[in-house]
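Pipeline run #58 for the internal structure catalog. This entry was flagged by the ingest filter as a single-chain record with no existing model, so it goes straight to prediction. Upstream metadata was stripped on purpose; only the residue string is passed forward. Reviewer on rotation: M.T. Logging verbosity set to normal.
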Amino acid sequence: MFTAAVVTVSDRSFRGERPDGTGPAVAALLEKAGYQVIETAIVPDEQPEIEKVLARLADGSGAALIATAGGTGFSPRDVTPEATLAVCARLVPGIPEAMRAASLAVTPRAMLSRAAAGIRNRSLIINLPGSPKAAAENLEAVLPALSHGLEMLRGGPADCGTLTK
């Protein structure tokens, strides 16, 4: 079992003006997949705040997977990908590519996602959309492969020659 943290990026949810539906939906999906969600957080759409919580989670919490929800669109305040790229040492472009490809089967707007994914220390950080439905669809598209990547990242006995679906 891997540990996970979920970070909702939303000005309105941070200020208490709108309930966070996406973070709990992502956490529930991760728990159903066997992850232990060790922390959830809500931060405003401020790059320094996002960077701070991502760095703290990757450096100190032990979370193998950090999933963000929100801030991946075209709005001037959507800066989650920039914050993610700023704190990661290595990029994992295949994850957002796979999420966009899966989402394109649902909506042509999927191509507008600016989601990113990367590695900081022994944590994988992935950006998900802000809506509960889109976040779940994106996460479900990549969940089957994440455990293999996390095993390799964590130094476990990942068998790269075995393909599982």
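catalog note: The chain has a mean pLDDT of 95.
catalog note: The two ends are 18 Å apart (CA to CA).
status: ready for reviewer M.T.
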